[in-house]
Write a structure and sequence with these properties.
With 518 residues, the protein is an alpha/beta fold. The chain has 19 helices and 21 strands. Strand 19, helix 18 and strand 20 form a beta-alpha-beta unit.
Length: 518
């Protein structure tokens, strides 16, 4: 008679599965709560202590850690010496292991959970059993996912055994499962122990949200994964209310827009295209902010993404509905706004509570490179107040300083080399991702002049994500009528730019903090 050891925390489908095994002539061995659940369902079950000859002890910490269990799992059936030893030791083989682990993730995510409770939910016997069974996958079927019960039963009924291909597949799932489980424990313990910085090895775990139709381009495969833990205010927590499934590019672009939006506390709208902002504005109401953002660049916003940090009302929805946009994200939508926006079947409407919550300071930003991974802490700063330094004869007015800060927030999320021009809490021109800074500067100015007219740039404030290596950008600003500039400073040639500002009566502020974004 073949034997299956069943010990599961998640009991989904386990009664039905065990009944099928019993009907096929299998003996069921079980432990603790699983044993009780199976017996209560009327199944004949052999207790684990009957197999080990040793009682469960230490509040259940020791149940299956016994040679009678592990020898029965690990013996290679085709190895005559192994089978002879089992006979001498009076140990019977175990042909199937059905185990899912203590709910560590669910425990660690509970608000206010005690450390002692977390530790007690670190499974020891379970991982040991399923790893042992997976090591001997040619002879032992090991199941960690209730979704695989039906496949196993179907093969047993049709062939009398589980195929080697299925056993191999189940084996792989075990090591994926234990890797994820151990990473969650390691992440928790690292934090609990106060270990900071970058450890010698990095193990990460993410959970799949969805398969995607394709990646950045149609010939690329893709999937979307989320972090395990508190993702409050993050895109992975957004609830889709309407529209088609998000694409790879949708998610990437929306994330860029959201990260910029989180810099602003008053009613603000960010329009984004290809992960770069194309229109940003703040106002007293979200409607006014949207109109200002839209008119900043009515061309680029077409087919773009709109994110707002206040509820979208009917008036705003009616304005949005006049053009084609891919996605609208907001903390909420009024019923009237939804009625307007859902008239277009393909627009994606995403509701994201706590939209202004930023990533924690210990969050990691990662970039995949060929054969490796670049890891850094997220850029959570804008500038340090004590480091702000007026370096020109003219100081910015209160109004100019307000616009400089507004522009700084924008340029922080513009691809480098990046320039952002702002006026009256509104983007005037944005120059992203140029190979030299003068081109980015010229592009931003030209955009403002072309889209909004020359007067829009006059009296505006400009922010650069890094220092000016030459005074050429100042010369362009002077021609356009820009009256205040903010840069990190730090170039050996800073004085040339300062002198040029003084020549043209432009205020210049250094922050001492660069914001490259590659």
């Amino acid at each position: 008679m073949k034997r299956a050891l069943i010990s599961v925390s998640d009991k989904t489908g386990i009664i039905e599965f065990a009944k099928e095994l019993t009907s096929l002539g299998w003996e069921i061995i079980s432990t603790g709560g699983t044993h009780k659940a199976l017996e209560n369902a009327g199944l004949k079950v052999t207790g684990i202590s009957d197999v080990t000859g040793f009682p469960e002890c230490l509040d259940g910490r020791v149940k299956t850690l016994h040679p009678n269990i592990h020898a029965g799992v690990l013996a290679i059936r085709s190895n005559e010496e192994h089978m002879k030893q089992l006979e001498e030791l009076n140990v019977q083989t175990i042909d199937m292991v059905v185990v899912n682990l203590y709910p560590f993730k669910q425990t660690v995510l509970k608000e206010g959970v005690a450390h002692e409770e977390v530790v007690e939910n670190i499974d020891i016997g379970g991982p040991t059993m399923i790893r042992a069974a997976a090591k001997n996958y040619q002879d032992v079927a090991v199941i960690v996912d209730p979704a695989d019960y039906a496949k196993v039963i179907d093969e047993l009924k049709a062939e009398g055994d589980v195929s080697l291909a299925t056993k191999t597949y189940l084996c792989a799932k075990v090591f994926i499962h234990t890797s994820n489980y151990d990473t969650l424990i390691a992440t928790y313990m690292k934090k609990y122990a106060g270990i900071e910085g970058f450890t010698d090895t990095l193990t990460l775990t993410y959970e799949k949200v969805q398969e995607m139709r394709y990646g950045e381009n149609p010939h690329q495969k893709a999937a979307f994964y989320k972090e395990v833990g508190n993702t409050k205010g993050m895109l992975t927590n957004a609830k889709q209310l309407h529209g088609k499934e998000l694409s790879f590019n949708n998610i990437n672009d929306t994330n860029g827009a959201l990260e910029l939006l989180k810099e602003y506390e008053e009613p603000t709208v960010v329009a984004c295209k290809h992960a770069n902002p194309c229109g940003v504005a703040s106002a007293d109401t979200i409607y006014e902010a949207y109109v200002k953002a839209y008119t900043s660049d009515p061309v680029s916003i077409f087919g773009g993404i709109i994110v707002a940090n206040r509820e979208v009302d009917k008036a705003t929805a009616e304005e949005i509905n006049k053009i084609f946009v891919e996605i609208v994200v907001a903390p909420s939508f009024s019923e009237e706004a939804l009625a307007v926006l859902t008239q277009k079947k393909n627009i994606r409407l995403m509701e994201l509570e706590d939209i202004l919550v930023k990533q924690p300071k210990d969050a990691l930003d990662m970039k995949k490179v060929s054969g490796g991974l670049l890891v850094q802490t997220v850029d959570t700063e804008l500038f340090n107040e004590e480091d702000l330094k007026v370096v020109t004869k003219k100081a910015p007015t209160e109004k100019e300083m307000e616009d400089l800060i507004f522009a700084m927030k924008m340029v922080k999320f513009v691809k480098s080399n990046g320039i952002a021009i702002a006026k009256d809490k509104r983007s005037i021109g944005i120059g992203p991702g140029q190979v030299n800074r003068i081109w980015a500067c010229q592009q931003a100015i030209d955009h403002g002049v072309t889209q909004l007219g020359e007067d829009s740039v006059k009296g505006a404030s400009l922010a650069s994500d890094a220092f000016f290596p030459f005074p050429d950008c100042v010369e362009e600003c002077a021609k356009a009528g820009i009256t205040a500039i903010v840069t990190p400073g730090g170039s050996l040639n800073d004085q040339a730019s300062i002198d040029a500002c003084d020549k043209y009566g432009i205020a210049m502020v250094f922050t001492g903090m660069r914001h490259f974004k590659h």
